[in-house]
Amino acid sequence: MRRRAFISGLIAICSILCANIRPSAAWELVTREEIKRESAAPHNKTAHVVARPGAPIITVEEPNPKQQITPPITLRITFRAQDGATIDPTTFRATYGWLGIDITNHIVANAKVSASGLVAKNASVPAGSYRVTLRIADNRHRVGTHTFAFTVEAQRRSGDRDSRPDKNRDGSR
Fold it and tell me: pTM, whole model, 2 decimals?
């Protein structure tokens, strides 16, 4: 009888603990409203910004624009200080598109940010083309900037011939 009660108790505890373990929920890198605002805006070519000597270097490890990208995506970004400086993680900023819509809070709320970089997993991103600008400063107030573009492919379902969107999220075809 005791053995049966003990086993029943173990099963109850395991089911309670397992119910609380869930995969992390997807989060939106860019909201649909932000995509609409960006798509409606005129897209003018801007001059390339020259980096200040000694500014931090930002490297985007993921997403890799040379590979097919399907949602959810992972952002893996590294920061590297120069000339003996240190990165100040609180200065991290991210903007989306030509309008420079601030998406910093979307990322920071779902990422592990440190002086060496950040990792944000499970970002929900609709199919389309995206342009993101990242900024980080060091303790000498030098700001490193990196802009990267990537295209998210629609997830193919069995039987789909071509699920690519007719129009990119940045308004181009």
Answer: 0.69
What is the full DSSP assignment across 35-92?
HHHHHHS-----PPPPPPTTPPEEEEEES-TTS-B-SSEEEEEEEE--TT--EEEEEE
Asked whether the beta carbons of 42 and 102 are under 8 A apart, the reply is no
The enclosing domain of 83 has a CATH number of: 2.60.40.10
Residue 159 lies in a domain: no
Any domain includes 138 = yes
pLDDT in tens, 141-155: 999 999 999 999 987
Overall size of the chain counted in residues: 173
Q: What total of structural domains would you count in the chain? A: 1
What is the extent of the structural domain holding 47?
26-152
90-129 exposure pattern, b = at least 16 Cβ within 10 A, e = fewer:
ebbbbbbbbeebebeebbbebbebeeebbbbbebebebbb
